[in-house]
Amino acid sequence: TIYAFKSYRELGIRWMTSQRSAARLAELVDLYAKGKLRLHVRKTFPLAQAADAHREVESRRGPGKVVLLVP
């Protein structure tokens, strides 16, 4: 997360935009299926515990994604 948008060049930060699309998602799924993309999942929560998942994200306890499991 960049909090100093006007200063990113001076800070030496490389600005990257995300390319969110169905095609991009399909590419990522393919890379994952081939074992060329690894995801680190820190913790999973059932949907009923969404508030707990949100608190986990806010805690910044470590690397990895926090995942909600939707039935």
SSE order and pairing:
Elements: H1 22-33, E1 41-46, H2 50-59, E2 65-69
Radius of gyration: 16 Å
**How much helix, percentage-wise, in residues?**
25-40%
What average pLDDT do the residues reach? 83
Structural class: alpha+beta
Main pleated sheet: 2 strands, parallel
Backbone shape:
extended
First CA to last CA: what distance? 30 Å
Percentage of residues in strands: 15-25%
What is the string of helix and strand elements?
HEHE
Number of helices: 2
Going across the biggest sheet, name each strand in turn. 1-2
Poorly predicted ranges:
none
Number of strands: 2
Describe the structure in your own words.
The chain is an alpha+beta fold and 71 residues long. Helices cover 31% and strands 15% of the residues. It has 2 helices and 2 strands. It has helices at residues 22-33, 50-59; strands at residues 41-46, 65-69. Strands 1-2 form a two-stranded parallel ribbon. The protein is extended, with a radius of gyration of 16 Å. It starts with 21 loop residues before the first helix and ends with a strand.
